[in-house]
Amino acid sequence: MTTTEVPRTVVPAGITDPVASARAELRAALAAIEVRGNFPRRIEKATSRGVVRARAFAHRNPPAAGAAVVAAAAAVGGLVWVLARAISR
Predict the structure, then answer these.
(1) pTM for this prediction
(2) Per the UniProt record, which residue ranges are transmembrane (predicted)?
């Protein structure tokens, strides 16, 4: 992004025409709604950031990453066991 570009969710400064200003405000408001309301895109970005962080952690500290994987698998297995036991009763 260069210094002259503004984010889509910001109304550019210096608009003197009231109609152009209203259109710019509406455009910015709709863009903000799209950014905040697009949950699949937000989840995808958060997942991508998490994967990058996990890979960096695994690269820095492989034994701890292995332990984290084992702990996560044990937690998921325990949860499945508890749910299966609750359903079977």
Answers:
(1) 0.54
(2) 64-84
